Structures are given as C-alpha cells and as structure tokens.
Recover the amino acids of this structure.
C-alpha cells in the first residue's frame, strides 16, 4: 500500500477525532487565530495528502480529489452535530474546508511533480 494513502487515512481519522472533542477538551491556542483560518489550513494539508495519495499529475485540475475533500468537510461538520458535544455545524467552516483543499491541491500540482 502506498504510504501517502496511509497518511491520508490517518489524517482523516485525526480530523474526525478532533471533531469529536467538546469545546472544553480542545486546548486554547497561544495566539488568537480565526476558526476559518484553522479550517483552511487543516484542509489545505488534506489536499496535499490527497494529491500525494491519488494525484497522477495528469492534465487538468483534480476535481475528484477536491470533491472528496469538500464532501469530507461537509461530513465532518455534520459529524460534529451528530456527536452532540456542544459543537454545531457551520456552512462557512465547510466553505473554508473546500477553499483550503483547493489551495492544497493547487500548490501540490504546481510544486510537486510526479
């Protein structure tokens, strides 16, 4: 099995684990950072890992990988609601997830030649 697929799977599991935590269980950051910025960075990393796992370097943008990351973000937002841990889904968090994944995939396509 490709190491990037394992890394992507573990990363997705870590995202879901963090989403299962209640707000009191998440440590405070030493510096105030926007929630949307955190979502953007989190999913940019996911986009990079998705490219490593499944990007083939072919012509065109990998819309399937973007769809995977965006749908995972939507599912993650719903998961927070289903867990009932005082966290609620936010459409703008899901939008930041999709934008982050797009940026991560774009950066990967430009700088990571396969």
């Amino acid at each position: 099995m490709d190491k990037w697929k394992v890394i992507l799977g573990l990363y997705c599991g870590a995202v879901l684990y963090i989403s299962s935590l209640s707000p009191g269980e998440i440590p405070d950051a030493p510096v105030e950072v926007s929630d949307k910025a955190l979502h953007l960075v989190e999913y940019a990393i996911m986009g990079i890992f998705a490219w490593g796992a499944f990007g083939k370097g072919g012509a065109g943008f990998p819309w399937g990988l973007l769809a995977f990351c965006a749908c995972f973000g939507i599912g993650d937002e719903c998961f927070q609601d289903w867990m009932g841990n005082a966290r609620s889904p936010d459409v703008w968090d899901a939008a930041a997830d999709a934008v982050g994944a797009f940026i991560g995939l774009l950066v990967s396509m430009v700088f990571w030649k396969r």
User: Anything to note?
Assistant: The first helix runs from residue 3 to 20. Residues 48 and 108 are 6 Å apart (CA to CA). The mean pLDDT is 87. Residues 3-26+34-111 form one domain.
